[in-house]
Amino acid sequence: MANKLINEMGLRKSLRHIFAARNIITAKDALSLTEFELMELLDVGLAEVKFAVALISEIASPHYQTVQSLLEQRMQNEYLTGHLPTHLKGLDAALCGGLPFGTLTELVGPSGIGKTQFCLKISLLAALPSCYGGLDGHVIYIDVESKFSSRRLIEIGINSFPEIFCLEGMAKEMAGRITVLRPGSLTEFTESLQKIKVSVLQHQVKLLIIDSMAALVSGEYEQGPQRHHPLGWHISFIKSLAEFSRIPVVMTNQVRSRGANQIFRYIFQESRDLTVEDDNEKCDSRLVAALGIHWAHAVNIRLVLESRSGQRFIKVAKSPVSPPLAFPFQVTSMGIVLLNDDGVEMAGSQINAIDHQGHVDIVHHGDER
Amino acid sequence: MEVLRLPLSASHKGKLISAGYTSIASLSSLSPSHLAIELKISETDALEILKSVSDGIGLPSTSSSVTIVNGAQSAWDMLQEEETLVHITTSCADLDNILGGGISCKEVTEIGGVPGIGKTQLGIQLAVNVQIPYHYGGVGGKAIYVDTEGSFMVERALQIAEACGDDMAEYSRLYHKGPQACEVKMMQAKDFLENIFYFRVCSYTEQIALTNYLDKFITEHKDVKVVIIDSITFHFRQDFDDMALRTRVLGGIALNLMKLARKYGVAVVVLNQVTNKYSDGSFHLALALGDSWSHASTNRIILHWNGDERHAYIDKSPSLRSASAPYSVTSKGIRNLTSNKKRIKHM
Question: Which family is this protein grouped under (chain B) (predicted)?
Answer without folding.
Answer: Belongs to the RecA family. RAD51 subfamily.
